[in-house]
Amino acid sequence: MNSAGEPLTHSGRDDVRIMTLQAHILEEQAHQPLAGGTFSWILSALSISAKIIADKVRRARLENVLGSIGTENIQGEVQQKLDVIANEVLLRTLGGREGVAIVASEENEEPVILRDNKDGDRRYCVLFDPLDGSSNLDVCGGVGTIFSILAHDRRADNAQASLLQAGSRQVAAGYVLYGSSTVFVLTFGKGVDMFVLDPGIGAFMRVEQGLKIPRHSKSYSVNEGNRRSFPAGYQRYLDWAQSNDYSSRYAGAMVADVHRILLKGGVFMYPPTKKAPQGKLRLMYEANPMAMIIEQAGGKAMTEPNQRVLDVQPRDIHQRTAVILGSADEVDNVIAHLATH
Ligand code: P6P
Question: Which of 36, 102, 156, 296 is the most exposed place for a label (fewest CB within 10 A)?
């Protein structure tokens, strides 16, 4: 009890139950009468992966696994040693789960088919960016894992066909932020819940339920180094924001920037640029999962030209997209400036 005689709760909030991520997953499963535990096992694999990757990130400099391995991934980006390590961790934990039919990773050109779709069991596709923002590792900046879960379409002729579903069909999405603490943010499509790893007991503890993004905040997040190659509407928005006392925050890792936006409000943008005319961020395993999280928290997630990210019908698992996401009022503000001429 505290000095006022009130029960001390783990999160200090109304729900006095101490809930771990594992218990939260099982509680969700109990609400699904037909759930056989397959989906829960997949989330359990993601939880274990997060703990393993968190440990490797924190020990990277001590174990000399910082820096690049000198090769490029399918995206043409230099692979960091930990990109490959994190990718292997996820492939090996998910590979051991019966419910996973296909995995697709930013680090792998082709999807990995783990199980065929002939038998009747309901299976899932898991798409992920194993270590988003890994160029921040050397400077101890925030990095993260982003994941998206789709129901496997057993009628599909091939892996790509089963994966190429619009973001609105995700059954779950989330991210792990390896920052000053290790945070696991998850949605099943019924709100957003947040967990923090307690390293003392090795469990993710629930600290927020039903997170809601502030409706507005005078803050934007964009790489202004690319400003000159942004389309004119973004220039107009930045001029307007800067003349209205907006602050600018940019971590250079989508997970870190979006997490700040989720908790504090504001708008995150990755516009089309000269180098990335379609936008830089990947639709399937960056924009879609983050869009689901932000929308479930009451925000908006749009792409060009004024389209909801989750409505985009994908053509390729590695396709890129422009992204404008965050507080509903702030996203509307950006869109309004894109529309004016
Ligand atoms: P830039 C990291 O490489 C990433 O994919 C996202 O995490 C991040 O938002 C973006 O690219 C940063 O790109 O061009 O600003 O360095």
Answer: 36
Q: Are residues 225 and 171 in the same domain?
A: no
Segments forming the whole domain that contains residue 86: 21-208
Ligand 1 contact via 133 beta carbon (within 6 Å): yes
To test the pocket of ligand 1, the residue of 77, 281, 286 to mutate (highest count of ligand atoms within 8 Å of its CB) is 281
**Can you give the length of the chain in residues?**
341
Task: Tell me if 211 CB under 6 Å of ligand 1.
Answer: no
Residues 194 and 224 in one domain: no
Packed helices 254-264 and 288-296: angle between N→C axes, nearest 10 degrees:
10
Measure the CA–CA gap between 266 and 247, rounded to whole angstroms. Answer: 9
How does the average pLDDT of the chain come out, rounded? 91
Asked which of 208, 240, 261 is the last residue of a domain, the reply is 208
pTM of the model: 0.93
- In short, whether 108's Cβ falls inside 6 Å of ligand 1 is no
What confidence tens digit (pLDDT) does each residue in 266-283 have? 999 999 999 999 999 999
Residue having the nearest C-alpha atom to atom 12 of ligand 1: 252
In a domain, 14, yes or no: no
Categorise residue 248: left if φ over 0, alpha if ψ from -120 to 50, beta otherwise: beta
**Tens-place pLDDT, residues 67-117:** 777 777 777 777 778 999 999 999 999 998 889 999 999 999 999 988 876
Same domain, 241 and 191: no
Residue 5 per-residue DSSP state: S
